[in-house]
Automatic annotation (TrEMBL):
It comes from Trichodelitschia bisporula. Gene3D superfamilies: set domain protein methyltransferase, domain 1. SUPFAM superfamilies: SET domain (SSF82199). The lineage of its organism: Eukaryota, Fungi, Dikarya, Ascomycota, Pezizomycotina. InterPro entries: SET_dom_sf, SETD3_SETD6_MTase. GO terms for molecular function: protein-lysine N-methyltransferase activity. It comes from the Eukaryota. This is SET domain-containing protein.
Amino acid sequence: MWNLNGGSFSLSLTESAQRGEEICNNYAPKGNEELLMGYGFCIMDNPCDQVAISLSEPPSQVYEVLKQSFPASFTTPEWNRNEGTFFLRGRGHYTGGYTHDLPCLRGLPPEFFVAILELVRLSFSKRTGEEPPSDQELVCSSIDSVRFRLHQNRNDIAAWIPTLPDGPQNIRQVYSKIYRDGQLRILEEIIEELSEYLDAF
């Protein structure tokens, strides 16, 4: 149980525990980003780990489609930062990923993919003198756009690796490496799944 007192807190157990034994809490599962930022540690091969990715405010017509398609996820009259943050999941995530018609989208929240799809659709609609894309072309272009964005995210993380020491020098660096490696693994898994789908066409 959490006890708050004068701005500080303590944890008291309702059951006995031995030193070094794992104590589970009553919070929801936490990925390594939340653990690192909130508690200062990470878990190797965390089955709850995910990658946060944010989208800038889309054009109003795209946001309207999202509100109609996902009314429980998009509840505000205007785009806000919380609704624009999505969580990508690797193959080892305890949920198994998200439900989609296409298995290659398993790691992407449906809301995120539909946002990209609608942005790509809008981009196509602004081209003059061209035939509108088929549904398959629209899906492939959207998957390619996501893959490009994830490559950028992956490269942004990997760019720092050559500047780091050969191995962690202290416990903070150990946790930073666990976090970084987990983010890279998830991004690379999703990029691979998207690439396999696109390579089939």
